[in-house]
Write a structure and sequence with these properties.
Elements (H helix, E strand, L loop, with lengths): L1 E6 L3 H18 L2 E6 L3 H4 L5 H4 L7 H9 L4 E5 L11 E6 L7 E5 L13 E3 L3 H10 L4 E3 L5 H9 L5 E5 H6 L8 E3 L11 E6 L3 H7 L5 H17 L7 E8 L2 E9 L6 E9 L3 H25 L2
Parallel strand pairs: 1-2, 1-3, 6-7, 6-8
Antiparallel strand pairs: 3-10, 4-10, 5-8, 5-9, 11-12, 12-13
Amino acid sequence: MKIKIGTRKSKLALWQANFVKEFLEKEHGVEVELVKITTKGDKILDSPLAKIGGKGLFVKEIEEALLRGDIDLAVHSLKDVPMVIPEGLKLGAITKRENPYDVLLSRHGKTLSQLPEGAKVGTSSLRRQVQLKRVRRDLKIEILRGNVDTRVRKLKEGLYDAVILAYAGVKRMGYEEEITEVLKDFIPAVGQGSLAIEIREEDKTTEELIRGLNDEESYLRAVCERAFLRELEGGCQVPIGAFATVKGESVNIRGFLSDLEGERFIEGNESGSVEQAEEVGKKLADYILGNGGKEILKEIYGG
């Protein structure tokens, strides 16, 4: 039996695909082939994601290959997966979540509070930008795209004084020792740290093969966070973050929506039973929408 995994070509994407490949080979003894696919997000590297379409940029071509039957499953960073999954596809497994936080890497080992006034900080994420502005409005935030290697190289070349990345990607690419500070006060992106395994809805064989990759707690957290984001209809054009935790039989979610300058920053918390994970996420979104969120979304989308 041969399984074809669809993946982007970046080193991080290939690390993720190989993680799934090794599991399938070890647990089920199947032959696995990686099919490398170039997405729109990989082709356009000189524009901020918010300007070129946001979510879906790194998955659309891979999902099309999955629907055509060219591949049997796709491996994505969960945070790249749009809230609406194409008809005929589903998320078959969510892997155990790596550390979900953002991290600061700086040239001289300075923490965020120690960076000099006017220091250049690189990030392409609006979510990170507004949270930066809230604590250090004096910093110069510059757009930084590219894979983890590229971003670290640009930092070392002195093009930036510091960069902000996801802990998970930094660790997976072997740069953990370069981390200056874990930004635990920053609310992460929805799903940050987990991998999503996408399959065809009716493909019971593949679903059975990947069952062991699913981590129940990470899955529940993802359901809660993604329900929050779906309700807000948020893409990469809007600064949004959410972080759910599970303790015993209860789930808690902390989330925010902000204007582009971080001046109107609406944050909230919501809790409930794990059976109600989706409803808890929606409830927090409704709270934020009712407390100024609707107005912010109208302004950003021009509606």
